[in-house]
Amino acid sequence: MSETRNVEGTEYEVIAEQEDGGGDYEWAHVALVRHPDGALFLVSDGGCSCNYPWSDTAASDLEPVSSWQEAVERVKGDRPYLFNDDDVAAFAQTLMSLRPAPSPA
Question: For the whole model, what pTM was predicted?
Answer without folding.
Answer: 0.75
